[in-house]
């Protein structure tokens, strides 16, 4: 199995795809050890999306996928921090 994703960033959506799973694939996501997402995907490839809470920059995010054959994929990320605010007002 493979995981296709860009690194997670606090306050933004984290999208990822699990490729190569066979049958039902169980997907569990842990943020700092706490389960924040747990679902079954019956028809791989599995497309998942979740929002990273604000203020979790620097925390460890772990994605675990287990397919019906028992194959396991585990990938760890460090959640990125946002650098200031995007946009803003200009004055003349």
Description:
- It is a single chain.
- This protein is mostly beta strands.
- It has a single domain (2-78), classed as Immunoglobulin-like (Sandwich), CATH 2.60.40.3110.
- It has no helices and seven strands.
- The N and C termini lie far apart (54 Å).
- The relative contact order is 0.31.
- The model is unreliable at 87-92 (pLDDT under 50).
List the helices and strands and how they pair.
Layout: E1 2-5, E2 13-19, E3 25-31, E4 34-41, E5 46-51, E6 60-66, E7 72-78
Antiparallel strand pairs: 1-2, 2-5, 3-4, 3-6, 6-7
User: What sequence of helices (H) and strands (E) makes up the elements?
Assistant: EEEEEEE
In the CATH hierarchy, what is the class? Mainly Beta
Low-confidence stretches: 87-92
Task: Supply the number of structural domains.
Answer: 1
Main sheet: strands, sense, barrel: 4 strands, antiparallel
Lateral arrangement of strands in the main beta sheet? 4-3-6-7
Number of strands: 7
**Rg, nearest Å:** 16 Å
CATH topology, by name, is: Immunoglobulin-like
Q: What is the second-level CATH architecture?
A: Sandwich
Helix content percent band:
under 10%
Beginning-to-end CA distance, first to last residue: 54 Å
Identify the CATH homologous superfamily: Outer membrane usher protein
Global outline: elongated
Q: Please report the number of helical segments.
A: 0
Structural class: mainly beta
Q: In percent terms, what proportion of residues is strand?
A: over 45%
Mean pLDDT: 92
């Amino acid at each position: 199995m493979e995981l296709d994703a860009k690194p997670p960033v606090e306050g933004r959506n984290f999208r990822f795809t699990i490729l190569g799973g066979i049958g039902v694939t169980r997907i569990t996501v842990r943020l700092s050890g706490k389960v924040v997402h747990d679902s079954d995907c019956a028809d791989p490839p599995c497309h998942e999306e979740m929002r990273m809470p604000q203020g979790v920059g620097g925390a460890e995010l772990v994605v675990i996928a287990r397919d019906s054959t028992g194959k396991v994929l585990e990938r760890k990320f460090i959640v990125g921090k946002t650098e200031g605010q995007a946009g803003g007002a200009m004055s003349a």
